[in-house]
Amino acid sequence: MVEPGKIIFLHGASSSGKSTLARGVQARIGEPFWHISIDHLRDSGVLPMERFRSGEFDWKAARAPFFDGFHRSLVAYAGAGNNLVLEHILDGEGWLEQLVQLFAPFDVFFVGVHCPLPLLIEREKARGDRPTGSAEQDFRTIHRGKTYDFEVQGEGDATENVGSILAAWKNRSPMSVFRRLLGT
User: Fold this and answer.
1) CA nearest 14: which of 99, 168, 128, 96?
2) How confident is the model over 32-84, as pLDDT tens digits?
3) Helix (H, G, I), strand (E, B), or coil: what is residue 113?
4) Alpha helix (H) ranges present in 29-111?
5) What are the Cα distances from residue 84, in Å, to 4, 49, 109?
6) Is the pTM higher than 0.70?
7) H or E element at residue 109
8) Which residues have CB under 8 Å from 71's CB, separation 6+?
9) How far apart, in whole angstroms, are the C-alpha atoms of residue 71 and residue 114?
10) Which tens digits make up the pLDDT trace of 93-103?
């Protein structure tokens, strides 16, 4: 029987530094972890982004089934024994609850990545690949009502934040936020 994968779940606003942290965790953690995000699917050409951007395809209609499939694919990866460093923005209604249920078999370490609004706006503008205002919208909503196993400040030194995440991961409680939300 395959041992289920473990999940380090980085949750923060667009442009908060999740990708940098995920790459750092992946580079330094003592066992193999996949780094996975929506950006990888978008940027690799999995999604027909040009056709969504042109209006030929309706992203609003495709969004719910896309994210449902993405969430279920994470279960398949971890269920096959792959460890994941997941970066995600829980901006959909019911997504946290869905993932708590789907991730029930896994050791999930939920990390909140916070960042001040002025820096999010500056990073979003510098990137140029995000709709203007998405970082601010995330800033105002995505952490509301969330509890984390660990939290970092995205404006802090990335190397130090990665070290802090790894230390907290190593010393994590078996009663994670996801376990508590599941009620087990």
Assistant:
1) 128
2) 999 999 888 888 888 898 999 999 999 999 999 999 999 999 999 999 999 99
3) strand
4) 38-44, 49-54, 59-79, 95-102
5) 11, 25, 10
6) yes
7) strand 107-114
8) 95, 98, 99, 102
9) 23
10) 999 999 999 99
